[in-house]
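Need tokens for this chain, all 252 residues.
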Amino acid sequence: MKSKISVSNLNFFYGEAQALYDISIEIPERQVMAFIGPSGCGKSTFLRTLNRMNDTIPIAKAKGQILIDGRDIYAPGTDVVDLRRHVGMVFQKSNPFPKSIFENVAYGVKINRIHSGKPDLENRVEKALRDAALWDEVKDRLNASAFELSGGQQQRLCIARALAVEPEVILMDEPASALDPIATKKIEELVVQLKENYTIVIVTHNMQQASRISDRTAFFMLGKLVEVNKTRKMFTNPEQKLTEEYITGRFG
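Here are the structure tokens for all 252 residues:
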């Protein structure tokens, strides 16, 4: 089992306040890793360290090492724009740009200059929409506003936008928490399909969702990694009593 992401002794601070404590974890290539735990336990903060999204917060500071394909993403001189192209992010609330469906997906391809002309751009947009299981629903209205799509479609559009720049890792921060059950099911099915080609890390409050779609699960509590294991084992025979208490609903 090859690791795509290797985290060693990561500590994270907002100013003087410590949010993550000595996190070490291996995230395998082309699997789905789910992060679970109560609100405020550090799941999303940790997720955002994996593509340095926390850099946008002036008082945020990470100590430790995060390797992606053996490269230290916090090393001096790291091209953060390039890092975020390879480690895409899908947020809790869908955030399409005030542009057409086509232009939403094409945006990253254009600014990263990774197409060779209009036909190539169109092919990349179509492929991303197909990979996000959205093409058949929008192919006849690519010039329509992204805001005309339903909530679930908008979230899949944001996934297509992330896929269009050909990332290797996709980070998802509760991507289905604002969606109805039918849209949620489509997102879950999509995640399972995408792991054939991508490494996926997903934060979820929904433990049933974690058990359905992830290969491995990590349980966080008060900024600490309590346990990481194969999902089936985590949900049937966890190694830590705290994990069992959370999964069985005794707190959280």
